[in-house]
Every structure is written in C-alpha cells, then in structure tokens.
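Homework help board

Subject: predicted structure for assignment chain

Our instructor gave us this sequence and asked us to write out the predicted structure in token form, then describe one feature. I got the tokens but I'm not sure how to describe them. Can anyone check?
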Amino acid sequence: MPGETVLVVEDDEDLVHMLEYNLKNRGYRTLTALNGFDAWDLIESEKPHLILLDIMLPGINGWQICETLRKHQQTDISQIPIIMLTALSSPEEKLKGIRMGADDYIPKPFSIKEVLLKIHRLIERDTTKKALEVEVDALKAKESQLTDFQDMLFHELKNQLTIIGGYSRRIKEAPDHEPERYHHYSNIIHQHSHALYALVDQILLLTRLTQDNWSLPVEKISMEQIIRNIITVFAAHADNRGIKMHFEKTENVADIELNPTAVRLALSNLVENALKYSPRSSEITVRLGKEDDWGFTVDVQDSGPGIPEHEKAHIFDKFYRGKKGKNQTKGCGLGLYISKTLIESMGGTLCLLRNNKPGSCFRMTYHPPEFQGSGLALH
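My token output:
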C-alpha cells in the first residue's frame, strides 16, 4: 500500500539498505532501527503500519519487542502487523513467533518479492479491518442514537398524554364547570394534542434520517405561510402568558422547494423554546428575510434571560440543558438538537446570533442547492 510506513528492525546494515531501497521503490515510507531500543522508540513515536522484525537483536530482542507490543494499552500500537525475519528456521521457532503474536514468519535467506508481497497483503488486511471497525462503530453509534431518541421522545409522549388525560378527567368529573374554566381546559388539551402530533412527526422523520440513502422529500412551500401557521398554533399559549408574538418580513421571499414537515418542526421547536424562556408580558419576534437574493433567513428572537457564554458551545448538543433551563422549564434537551439536525439535513444552517438585544436570537439560513457551492458565506 504505497505511502504507508514500514519499520525495518534489523542489525545487518547491508540487509537494511536492501530492504529500504526496495520498499521505497514500491512507494512505502521507510524507517529503520539497528537495535531493539531504537526500534521501540520509533514504534511509540511513529506508530508504523507494519514492522519487519529480526529476532536476534542487540539490547531488546525480537521476541521481547513482539510480546511487549502485543500487550500495549494503545490499540494503534498493539495491533501493528509484524513479520518476523530470522535465520532461526526450525518449526519450533516459527510456532514461538506466532504464539508471541507475529502475523507472519519469513526465514532467511528470503526472496525480496515474497517479503514485498506479504507486506502488501498484511497492510491491505489491516486497512480493511480498521475500515470495518470504523463502520461497525458507526452502526453502533447510529443504533445508540436511535435508541436515545426513542427513549426520550416516548418519555415526552407519555408526559403529554398524562397532561391531556388529567384535564380530560377534570371535565368529565365536574361537568358543571363555568365556561371560562372549560375554555382554559380545552386550550391546554389543544396545545398538548398539537405537541403529540409534532412528536409523532419528529419520531418518524428522525427514524428515517438515521437510515442510509434516504433524503427528505421536497415540495414547493411558502415560508411566510408556514411561519404564520406556526404563530397561530402557539397564539393561545402566548396569550395565556401575556406574551405578544410578532411576525416581520424584511423582503418578499419566493416559494422554495423544501420538506414542509421538517421546516415546520424545526421552526416550531425554536418558537416553543422562545415561549418557554420568555417572561410573562414580553415579546417574541419571528423575522423572515432574504439572503443574498437566492436564499432566506428566519430569526426567532425571544425576551428570555439569554444563554451564558460558557453554555453556548453546547446548546445544540443532544440532551443538553443549561442550568437555568433545568431549574425553570420542563423538557428533555432535544428541541434545539432536533431543529439543527432537520435544518442541516435540508442543506441549511442553524446558529445562535450575537446581538445587543435582550434574550436570544436563533437564525435559520438556507440557500438553494445550486448556490450552496458558489462560495457564498452561510451565517
């Protein structure tokens, strides 16, 4: 495998030069050591892709190097392929080398073609093995991620059903409530029913996004209409807390091809988050604007306490909740993570803006695919 590093550990300098010359001609990066102590220093500092190891060495012999290497705590050292080169050609010596952890054993004198072939095969095998390990780790991480999503989302699903069930029982057990109380209860049931629909959509979308070779289907949508619909959905909740929700449009934004469910869920999470942290009798602004004539931005500005500087690097992490959030609001720490995941799956970005206004402002930025590679900066 050209470009890979091979360490030659051999005390015969003529043999070292011959191996080094042939390895370099094949494109390998070559390191050499004439004794066991120098060899071990190079192993720990360079972590070669393969070691050609003589047995009879001054200082530390090849058996000791092989045994120590296989017991090393760092896997990128303990798993380095080893080919032993030795004049000791008896079957017992070969078996001893294999027991010590050598991958192959070549008696001297040897054919340089055989050595080069075995080096190629061992490095190729090791490269394939590492690639498979990476793939397995990725699959395990994906499975773990999906399990975490399901556990947290179904936990939230249960919470919403508990609230709906509780207020439904109040209506059933006391049918003579005054109209104002019925109206209050029905508003709460409506809000949490909407949350249930959103959770179901999130579960379906996130499950599909974890599957390979699946992308969100798109259709032409009006960003203004989606934002106005979201504000309408949360209007009752905002009114109950005396919060005014404003929609602002800096310029007309043309209809654009995106996944409407993903856009709605991502922006709904941002608006709901703003409502959670904004104090009573405050304001929330959702602002739609153009971006470089081709894309658009959506800002969600709340009137909450803002986010401490030391927490800003973690706000989009899965299950992360800041200290104020844990103490003041309910939730599982998935809202911002889900919004970012959905927006990025469509080719957009989500960030926390730095501005001089009180509270926090989150910005979604999107450019159509034909302009995303044009060198334009995404904010």
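Reply (TA_rk): Your tokens look well-formed. For the description, you could write something like this. The first helix runs from residue 13 to 25. That's the kind of observation they're looking for.
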